[in-house]
Amino acid sequence: MTNWQKHIGIIIPLLVIAGLMLYPTITGKAAARETAFTILKAIALASSLNILLGYTGYVSFGHIVFFGFGGYVGFYLLSSQGMSLWICILAGGVSSGVLAFLLGKAILRLRGAYFALATIGVNEAMRAFINNFDLFGGPTGITLNFKAYLAYGGAAKALEMAFYVVGGLAILAIILSYIIRTSKFGLGLLAIRENEDAAEVMGVFAPDAKTWAYVLSAIIPGMIGVLFFFKNGNVEPHDAFPLHASIELLVMVMLGGQGTVLGPILGAFAYQGMRGYLVTSDFFKDIQLSVSGALLLIIVLFIPAGAVGWLRQRFPILRRVLA
Amino acid sequence: MTLLLQVQGVTKRFGGLQALTQVTFDLPKGQILGLIGPNGAGKTTLFNTINGVYHPEEGRILFQGKDVTNKMPYHLAKMGMARTHQIVRPLNELSVRENVMVGACFGHENQSLGNAGKIADEVLEFVGISSRTDQLAGSLNVAQKKRLEMARALASHPHLLLLDEVLAGLNPSEIDGMIQMVLDIRAQGITIIMIEHLMKAVMNVSDRIFVLDYGEQIAEGSPNEIANHPKVIEAYLGDPKLAEQLMEDD
């Protein structure tokens, strides 16, 4: 096998991202960039969640906490301390990683439904804490001074830049996901997913491996958070920690195929596309979340492996192509 | 004669249940120790205690001269201990080859993925399921899953191998194959403790036999000694004197 064939599993995902990044330029519409931004953000978040959910087998109902927490930390440094966006994005990633490390030590010993419940608790507790944390503006949050965009060539330029940065972060998320999937560390995670006790008997340091998987799945959401709030110009607790967004991420990963590199990308794409249609239709606009609930139910009942997983099972030859 | 494993006065309780009481034995390198006893005697509990799944309330366990009493299973795996499970635990959604690679990658040799792949191919050949390499482990039948358990344990190139009823549920020809495999493994210099219900098999392959009943060791010795040990006969068949009396009554 040549190098090209060996890494085909990463080439398809990267082509999808490249297509999305070029899409606004090709169509030339301003709205197209917003759509593409939302999809790229969803891809980055879903691919990150997949490290924990798909590879390690731990269901998190509160993954958005890392988006919110990292976003808050970075955005605070940006607006109140006047630090550069790049440092703030890094700070957001690092603080989410540290949060995941501490949480992991505490709640990753729980298994199955207990872990899932704990993650909901963490998200809600964090929102309540931020709501009462004066440094971060309490319930009213933080607003960015419009002048801050001047350093990036004005608001219009800054928004355009944010779009390419989110694309970069999506690529980073996918590369990270692919490296883990094809590494020894990743094999250990898959073993934990399949049978944690058996994995430990074979020598997988499950507590450490799970904690690092959690940390790696938290960093990019933290970075995305900073970028997203920078683009919005403000942050409030209910924007930062929306529980339904965590569940939507789960739907994306499950829809596309958990435990695969390509799955979360397709899932994020399809889900955001569907959502875009639903929120603009007269009939569905108020009940779009119930549609995602129904969708999740259908996936779990009929195609638990998701679209990519189903294709891999159905056509073994595709296993080589669809990582 | 170097001692690979020393179990010294190990006691394990589950609440009020005394699962193991003052179990003591030494295992020299290169031997096969057969571990027998009626159902519920504590054999698997003893494995779990040696293996770090459980920690004993009393006593010590030394592996390669080091105290491993409160170590976790992954620490012991890294020191060169491997085991199979009575109820097989395949990693269902991974291929047979990946299952075996986990054993090689995370065992005491800490192999890289590339080497682990080669070791997996060798070991799968050895246990005779190399035609199933790319199949998902979940799709194997019971006999193949037992071989897979064995392959995973062997792939780590362990010093000590704990075999928990590898013969249970196999048909006679599969049993012969498995016994031959155990002997081949010993020939490679790997020390083995095997739990087995099949007396003929355990008597044939074991250098020594250790008998547990209600968590207590009731006998230890060569297969011959064990076969004629009154306590062992009692544990398995009931009180021999009572049996004799009943016969006389007839």
Brief summary:
The complex is a heterodimer of chains A (about 325) and B (about 250). Chain A is mainly α and about 325 residues long.
CATH architectural type of the domain at 1-79 and 196-250 in chain B: 3-Layer(aba) Sandwich
Q: Work out the helicity level of chain A.
A: over 70%
CATH-defined superfamily of the domain at 1-79 and 196-250 in chain B: P-loop containing nucleotide triphosphate hydrolases
Number of helical segments with 4 or more residues of chain A = 15
Tally of DSSP β-strands of chain B: 10
Can you tell me about this structure?
The complex is a heterodimer of chains A (323) and B (250). Chain A has 323 residues and is an all-alpha fold. Chain A has one domain: Orthogonal Bundle (ABC transporter involved in vitamin B12 uptake, BtuC), CATH 1.10.3470. In chain A, 75% of the residues lie in helices and 1% in strands. In chain A, helix 3 (30-56) packs antiparallel against helix 10 (206-232) and helix 4 crosses helix 10. Chain A starts with a helix and ends in a 9-residue tail after the last helix. The relative contact order of chain A is 0.18. Chain B is an alpha/beta fold and 250 residues long. Chain B is built from ten helices and ten strands. The A-B interface holds A 183-184, 187-188, 190-191, 193-195, 197-206, 259 and B 51, 53, 72-74, 77-78, 82-83, 85, 89-94, 98, 101-103, 105-108, 112-113, 116, 152, 156.
